[in-house]
Amino acid sequence: MAASKCVNWLFGRGLSIGCNLPWSVPAEWSHLAREERISRIKVVLRQEMDAATVDCKVIRCLLELLAKHTVAGWRHRFITTNWDYLLQREILALPMKVQPPWLANSHVFHLNGTVEDLPDNSNRSLFLLEEDSGTQRTATPEADIVYNQMTWDRTFVLVGMSFECETDRFLLLALGRVEDDLPIGESSWVVVNPDRNVLGLSCQRLQKALPRASVKPVCATLSEWVQNGPQELRQWGILAF
């Protein structure tokens, strides 16, 4: 099977912060039982998402850019380690009656679970806390589908993600196990982060897991990168202006 012409966007906490949603789990909740902590996170984060201060302009600008400038034949898939569903909400708000050709899937894949409350969440990824070990992951349709799709692709954009916690590092370990056999081993990555130190660490960890991959660091916020017209995606023939 050949690698598809699909850009896989992996979003970490930097996306939420860019939308003015900097909320994190209070340290004083650390003594609570795991399920109680998760229950509180879901309640509070949903409230924080609806705060008047939250502004998803950066997401809307990104979606507008991709809708207008994606070269025919290319598509975009969205994946996140965040619990919030700001990105999903903005995609569903797009004025579309059918899925547009630039969008691989209208579903945003959550690797670490989500606070979104749907009638049926049985197929969704398990809700994982930052301190959870990789062994606490269990196979779910959502996680399995996106992992299998990623391993057969070669084009990735990593935004605001450092692979600092073990739950996120587990993804690199899983990808590293198949890098000799599947297209992702020779993938190309753009890593976007405004913090130069975090950017360097993210690139190092990514390169260690996928030694044959091409990794391009971009020291900028997602908003800055989008506004400047992502040069890397233009050079790869994904966007045209």
Architecture overview:
The chain is α/β, with parallel strands linked by helices. It is 37% helix and 12% strand. The two termini are 31 Å apart. The model has no long low-confidence stretch (mean pLDDT 93).
List keywords for this structure.
single chain; 241 residues; alpha/beta; Rossmann fold; six-stranded parallel beta sheet; 6 strands; 37% helix
Summarize the structure.
It is built from nine helices and six strands; from the N terminus they run E-H-H-H-E-H-E-H-E-H-E-H-E-H-H. It is an alpha/beta fold. The chain has one domain: TPP-binding domain (Rossmann fold, 3-Layer(aba) Sandwich), CATH 3.40.50.1220.
The global form is globular
CATH topology: Rossmann fold
Strand order of the largest sheet: 3-2-1-4-5-6
Instruction: Spell out the helices and strands N to C.
Output: EHHHEHEHEHEHEHH
The counted number of beta strands is: 6
Please estimate the helix content: 25-40%
Largest sheet, described in full? Answer: 6 strands, parallel
Q: Which stretches of 5+ consecutive residues score pLDDT under 50?
A: none
**Rg over C-alpha atoms, rounded to the nearest angstrom:** 17 Å
Question: What would CATH call the architecture?
Answer: 3-Layer(aba) Sandwich
Count up the domains: 1
Q: Indicate the CATH class.
A: Alpha Beta
Separation of termini?
Answer: 31 Å
Mean pLDDT across every amino acid position: 93
What proportion of the residues form beta strands (DSSP E)?
5-15%
**Count of DSSP-assigned helices:** 9
Structural class, from secondary structure content?
Answer: alpha/beta
